[in-house]
Write a sequence for this structure.
């Protein structure tokens, strides 16, 4: 079953999510997952909001598959340095890198975004918690 926006399939594990994707999307998602674990070995992965989410002091990034591409999203993407100009999005905080093929992954820049996103959570705490006030 193709992982895409709006599908209703429920997955129990990140492995099941990736296995459900079309070949190239599965390769992209698998490579991103490996990079996240390489850069942030203490990350906790789970399925939240119908997608793989990676956490360290709260969620810092996610993988979301669409019909023809995979997004690597960052919960505090607007606060991340992005010298390679990879991040897309216009929301207050969230940004993503859009990847259709393994060859689209600029490994050094993506790894740096992953490291910076995790470090930002360590400094700032869980981005999904609203400050009291």
């Amino acid at each position: 079953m193709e992982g895409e926006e709006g599908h209703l399939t429920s997955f129990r594990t990140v492995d099941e999510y990736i296995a459900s994707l079309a070949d190239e999307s599965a390769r992209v998602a698998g490579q991103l997952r490996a990079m996240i674990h390489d850069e942030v070995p203490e990350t906790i992965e789970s399925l939240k909001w119908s997608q793989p989410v990676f956490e360290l002091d709260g969620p810092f990034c996610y993988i979301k598959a669409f019909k023809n591409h995979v997004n690597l999203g960052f919960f505090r993407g607007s606060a991340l340095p992005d010298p390679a100009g990879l991040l897309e999005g216009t929301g207050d905080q969230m940004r993503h890198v859009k990847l259709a093929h393994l060859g689209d992954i600029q490994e050094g820049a993506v790894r740096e975004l992953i490291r910076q996103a995790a470090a930002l959570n360590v400094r700032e705490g869980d981005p999904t918690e609203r400050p009291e006030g």
The chain has one domain: 14-124.
